[in-house]
Amino acid sequence: MLNIALIILVIILLILLLLVFSRKASNDKNLASLQENLDRARLKLAETEAQQDDLKFEISQLRIQNSGLKVQVDKVSKYQHIAEVEQYVEHRALQADGLVEVTKINADIMLQDIKSHIDEVRHFLAQYQEKAKTRTQEKAREELKSLYHQVVEQQQLQNVINALEHKVQGYKGKFFLPVQQVLDELIAGFDESDAVQSLLAVRCKMLDAAEQQQTATCNYVDEDRRLAAIHLFTLVLNSRADLYLAQLTVDNLGESLQALKDDYTLLNAHGANFSQAQVLESYLNLRLEELKLAAIVMQLKQANSAVDLAV
Length: 311
Hints:
With 311 residues, the protein is mostly helical.
């Protein structure tokens, strides 16, 4: 047991010695490092002292230069106001240049605005001129239309007056036609059968016009009233045409034609009282053609009768 204790004690002592030697080595190392750092610090200090001496020398040189500069400044100080004037002039020149540039920019902007305004004014004037021209043309059209209607109404009124004068004063002698010559011209190229066929064709056209309601017009909205007005005006004209046809001779053809035209004019003059009811001129022309062809047939029959009597 004692030996074991001694061995353990020896081991502990060895460990302690190792620790002591290790710490001593570390301390020696640290001491060497500190010594090295100290040497470096001393070297740095020497360099710093050398730099300080150089700086002191440079400072002394700068002081000398400063003294020289002060002397020079004192010499040129009397010309300082000239330099200030030059600086002022340069400053004002720069301000003037800037003002000129700003003025140019503003002038360009104003010029563009003026051009734009001029374009707008031109556009407005062009539109106004076009509108004025259109209004003038429309007004002229309205005036011409009004004048045209006045002329038409005046002509219609004159036709009515003439028709009334004819009715009041009569047709005797006023519308006498050289019947024989006229009928000879109409009959030329016709024989009795041709004249009869032409007369039948005209009457077929009259029947077709009546069936297709192309004898007269009316503006009544109500269909029954419109048809009644058309039938009434057609009936009136037909009654007058039939009367002249019944009274027709080769001598009164001109009077019959004019009388039927006057009846047509007077009848249509009353159309304003029946929603502008009017007998169509195309139907009047058919009735006039009927009278002419009837006169031709009568003349041909008379000529044939005269030939038969002569034979």
